[in-house]
Specification:
Length: 188
């Protein structure tokens, strides 16, 4: 817990310099950001396998997952200042299991992730288009989608096939977390 507390200190300090999290969420940072990220872990069938966190931004959920599980976490972020912040966090916390890539998702070398997550990154159609090359039939997608979960699922139904269910968020009664596997493009 000490390393999570240290991460939150670093996050709050950096949030004054760049828009990592909304200032209005600072008083509820544990519930709004840590719990919101940590709730994804028990939804993963293999939480100690390699996670891919797309659009990592402030390190949510990637840093929280790396701290709690000790699992390898590859974070992808295209904005240099955010990557510099995340690298500083990784170095400060001694997170040898976390890796940050400064790159658009399209340019990241393909590897098979055990679990793919993305918080506030892209709508499902774009997310699947960009990231499905990192998945196998066994890869699990654990995607916090807020209040738009069902609408986003409807938007991909004609072009993507998957086995999925929607879990309620423990931090927002109106939000949902899409848990999917076997994500593949439908044959036309």
């Amino acid at each position: 817990m000490d390393r999570i507390a240290r991460y939150l200190v670093l996050l709050a300090e950096e949030a004054r310099r760049q828009n990592l999290i909304a200032e209005s969420t600072l008083p509820t940072i544990w519930a709004r950001h840590v719990a919101d990220s940590a709730q994804l872990i028990p939804l993963a069938d293999r939480p100690h396998g390699t996670w891919l966190d797309l659009g990592s931004g402030a390190g949510l959920p990637g840093i929280v997952i790396a701290l709690i599980t000790g699992a390898p976490v590859v974070m992808v972020e295209s904005r240099r200042r955010r990557v510099e912040f995340l690298q500083a966090v990784i170095d400060d916390l001694g997170l040898g299991n976390a890796d940050i890539r400064l790159s658009p998702v399209e340019r990241v070398e393909t590897f098979a992730a055990v679990t793919i997550t993305a918080r506030a990154f892209a709508p499902l159609p774009k997310l699947f288009e960009l990231a499905h090359r990192f998945s196998t039939e066994k890869t699990q997608w654990v995607l916090p989608k807020g209040r738009n979960a069902k609408a986003e699922l409807e938007a991909v139904a004609l072009t993507w096939h998957m086995m999925f269910h929607v879990e309620p968020s423990i931090t927002d009664d109106a939000a949902g977390i899409i848990v999917a596997r076997d994500v593949r493009r439908r044959r036309q």
